[in-house]
Amino acid sequence: MKWRVVLERDSETGDWAVWCPELPGCTSAGQTQEEALRNIREAIELYVEPSPLQLAPGAVACEVTL
Q1: What is the phi/psi pair of residue 56, to 5°?
Q2: Is the pTM for the entire model greater than 0.85?
Q3: Residues 4-46: pLDDT tens digits?
């Protein structure tokens, strides 16, 4: 799966901030662009990881693909 990310350089520290527009609150940073991209990959993986579900008796969990 592909996600768009935006890299922005901090003018004070020189570090790189990175965020994913499609995933609100999914942000990271790094001292280099490469480090920031590695970090956002991990952040995205954690963001989209499914949470355990408490299902009612008889409920069925399914996955859909877009």
Answers
A1: -70, 155
A2: no
A3: 999 999 999 999 999 999 999 999 999 999 999 999 999 999 9
Tell me how far the alpha carbon of residue 40 is from its chain's centroid.
6
Rounded distance between C-alpha atoms, residue 10 and residue 13, angstroms: 6
58 with 39: CB under 8 angstroms?
no
Amino acid (1-letter code) at residue 24: P
Q: Phi/psi of residue 16, each to 5°?
A: -110, 125
Q: 3-37 b/e with 16+ CB inside 10 Å = b? A: eebeeeeeeeeeebbbbbeebeebbbbbeeeeebe
pLDDT at 53 over 90: no
